[in-house]
Write a structure and sequence with these properties.
- The protein is of the alpha/beta class and 438 residues long.
- The chain is built from 13 helices and 17 strands.
- The protein folds into 3 domains: 27 residues; 96 residues, Urease, subunit C, domain 1 (Roll), CATH 2.30.40.10; 272 residues, TIM Barrel.
- It has a 7-stranded mixed sheet with strand order 3-2-1-4-15-16-17, with no helix packed on it. Strands 10-11-12-13-14 form a 5-stranded parallel sheet, sandwiched between helices. Strands 5-6-7 form a 3-stranded parallel sheet.
- β12, α9 and β13 form a beta-alpha-beta unit.
- It is globular, with a radius of gyration of 24 Å.
């Protein structure tokens, strides 16, 4: 009996020791898995403060534990030496199309490639985008099955890629920019968008079904577009009533609405309807600026897309005659639009429309922002804190701070002086995992 009592007491003591050890570990905070030694560190582009000789402590959960001055170490933690580099938050591209890329076979691929083919191309393009330093993207227009599967695979760490905010299929007017155009009637019937709609009620239904399918954000085509193979121009295509119904339905279900819009009439109609952001915004006018400032909507300028289609129109062999005619006009207007937006203080988030341009050259957009009058630091803020706020993940990423995801890049040189430095990114960490290290 005495022996049993002693054994029981010993077991209780062991449990107490284990509990005490666990409590001590919790009190000490989460385990530090890795430490980045940063020679220069930009934690928040909205403040513009650059620190020197700092250590970023990253937890096993992929989040940042804290930042400490000097080059510190911790038992069991991997040290990542970036002492000769400039370290900053992972970049955010608010407009990409990961499952496709514009090329000379674009029309043929629309009928050749299966959804599985598109997803496989998405895997490759996602890795390319991540290696370019973009740790978060918003994919605004793709097959639901392809992009939602890719989003899930990346979130579950089955494949490497940026965090994806996905719209899936764009909500478009019947025959509009994101619907099937330029094919025979029989092919159009097969390819037409599952989210095409006409009339306010049908458009509400299309929005709700996209959310049901898994959309994080609703993308709409408020105007015609350059790459739709039709001579329908780039002005307003949804009616005012349809736009209002779309926004009401999306907001009621907790989703923001971003509108592809080139022509001023379509931009202004979308802003009056209450969209949260405008993609492209090529032909903004004084009324557009007034509405942007009143509604606090974001402009995602995608200047790179405009430059790319201008270049392709001049080169020949890729764009159809309908596409080329629109491309020659829109590119120049995009560059003018961003200058007007900057002068007026319109809120801007970084976006490229990659998939129109090649995946992996996203950072070329920084050059156009600086040419439009932004300082390099302002351009970095547009691609970090602004873009995170625009996508409503400002408490998750866009800064290097305790509690944020460890989305971190490092470059040679100083991007606050020369933004072209961001076109060559030798180190990338996404959600605490090193994705690239040269």
């Amino acid at each position: 009996m005495l022996q049993r009592a002693m054994t029981f007491a010993g077991a209780l003591g062991a449990l107490a020791l284990l509990a005490g050890s666990s409590f001590a570990q919790e009190a000490a905070g989460p385990r530090v898995a890795s430490i980045i030694h940063a020679g220069r560190l930009l934690t928040d582009a909205s403040t513009g403060s650059v620190l020197t000789e700092q250590s970023i402590l990253v937890g096993a959960d992929g989040n940042i534990i804290g930042i400490e001055p000097g080059y510190v170490t911790r038992d069991g933690a991997i040290v990542i030496d970036q002492r000769n580099r400039f370290v900053l938050p992972g970049l955010i591209d608010s407009h990409v199309h990961l499952t496709s890329e514009l090329g000379p076979n674009q029309l043929l691929e629309e009928v050749q490639l299966s959804v599985a083919d598109q997803a496989m191309r998405g895997v490759e393009n996602a890795r390319t985008t991540l290696n370019a330093g973009f740790t978060t993207v918003a994919d605004l227009g793709a097959s639901n099955d392809a992009i939602f599967a890719l989003r899930r695979a990346i979130a579950e760490r089955r494949v490497m890629g940026p965090r994806i905010i996905a719209s899936g299929s764009a909500v478009t007017p019947d025959g509009g920019h994101a619907d099937a155009n330029g094919f025979s009637a029989a092919v159009v019937d097969v390819l037409r968008s599952p989210s095409a709609c006409s009339g306010a009620d049908a458009c509400r239904r299309a929005v709700r079904r996209q959310i049901q399918a898994g959309a994080d954000i609703i993308k709409i085509t408020a105007t015609g577009g350059v790459l739709s193979n039709t001579a329908a121009g780039v002005e307003q295509q949804f009616s005012d009533e349809e736009l209002a119904a779309i926004v009401q339905a999306a907001h009621a279900m907790g989703r923001q609405v971003t509108a592809h819009a080139h022509g001023a009439g379509g931009i202004n109609a979308a802003l009056r309807a209450g969209v949260d952001s405008i993609e492209h915004g090529s032909y903004t006018d004084a009324e557009s600026i007034r509405l942007f400032r009143r509604t606090r909507a974001y402009l995602v300028p995608t200047i790179l897309a405009g430059v790319t289609v201008e270049e392709l129109a001049a080169q020949g062999g890729v764009l159809t005659p309908n596409q080329a005619a629109k491309a020659r006009e829109v590119g120049t207007r995009m560059r003018q639009s961003i200058q007007n937006a900057r002068r007026a203080g319109v809120r801007v988030a970084f976006g490229t429309d990659s998939g129109v341009s090649r995946h992996g050259v996203n950072a070329r957009e920084f050059q156009f922002l600086v040419e439009g009058g932004y300082t390099p630091m302002q351009a970095i803020a547009i691609a970090t804190v602004n873009a995170a706020d625009h996508l409503r993940i400002g408490d998750v990423t866009g800064r290097i701070a305790a509690g944020y995801a460890a989305d971190i890049i490092a470059v040679d040189g100083d991007p606050t002086q020369d933004v072209t430095t961001l076109m060559r990114v030798p180190f990338v960490m996404a959600r605490g995992t090193v994705a690239k290290s040269e």
